Amino acid sequence: xxxxxxxxxxxxxxxIELSRGVATAVVATVIGMLxxxxxxxTPLYIMYKQAFGFSQIxxxxxxxxxxxGNLCGLLFFGRLxxxxxxxxxxxxxxxxxxxxxxxxxxxxxxxxxxLGRVLSGLAIGIGAGTGTAWxxxxxxxxxxxxxxxxxxxxxxxxxxVAALIAGVMAEYLPWPLHLPYIxxxxxxxxxxxxxxxxxxxxxxxxxxxxxxSVHPRISVPPEIRTQFVAPAVTVFGSLALVxxxxxxxxxxxxxxxxxxxxxxxxxxxxxxxxxxxxxxxxTRSLSSRASMLLALALMLPSVALIVAAQLAISMTLxxxxxxxxxxxxxxxxxxxxxxxxxxxxxxxxxxxxxSYLICAFAGNALPVIGVGIISTLxxxxxxxxxxxxxxxxxxxxxxxxxxxxLPKA
Length: 409
Fold this sequence. Notes:
The protein is mostly helical. Helices cover 79% and strands 0% of the residues. It contains 16 helices and no strands. It has helices at residues 3-15, 20-39, 45-52, 56-64, 66-77, 80-84, 86-105, 110-138, 144-172, 179-195, 225-255, 262-282, 288-312, 315-343, 349-377, 380-405. The N and C termini lie far apart (52 Å).
């Protein structure tokens, strides 16, 4: 055996020295860090609006425009980690988020906010599918439910902690539009180093750059399409609830409840995220089908409470609405993602998870755009009623497909 031959196994051994438990924690951290970049700006929207002088519709579009990056990432790069490996793609996503932090740090106008949101959407779109598939492979096949619990919990913990930290920094520390991104930048650098130490789980031979396929091919095999409808529609509704809070809760607090504290805006979103993560952990023994169907049933009272909080101008009702929305979002996201992982053929897992995530990101952004436009043209109450009606329609549709086509086991 040549010296070149003997050196290759040695490098491989060093690469996989991290235990599976530590590697799983690192990948979960990467997922949380990626999603944190999408809500770090949540308590800062009002400050950006005042600093740059843009309208409510522009604020809504700044939030929602990142779906463009999501869709580009999922459509063109959804299968990339299946081809070249999870580690390389995850590291590239972290580097892209470092660029995003630099864009926000240097922002001097609304154009930088749009650019930062699109780039963060791209990184999250690529990284979410990669990280979810990576976790499922790092954890034993019989523990896919555990992989789903970890992925979804990390997602929402990242969302909530980032919003709270940004809100507290903006309220009590200097440089409110810069300090949160300086802290985030430092955390990203550490996480990027760690991700390079996680073992690779894609073992097949890797194609050359010339043979890489980046043509849009986000699809679902015909044999699982009817089963896929229910989780796809469920995650659309679940993430629409989260999007409502991420984009519009700060404005609702300031304009209708007259609460202007950035820390409170961050705390409201943290409540949502903590209840989501806690619900996912507490209900992990609940079957994926039962979890998803229960979430769909809870969506109806959750949107009713959102409207009631606005009509009554009640912080108490808003807190209650946040809790119920969080439980619905948690059960819906965890159950639908777990079903998607279960029905996906292993060789197409990242591709099918990416198809699922397209529905998730569309739900997170598109209803919010509609709410923002209706709020400007009519009233916030009319917008919330329209949002509630949309969620009800999607919940009933998913209930039908879930009850009819998903196995009861």
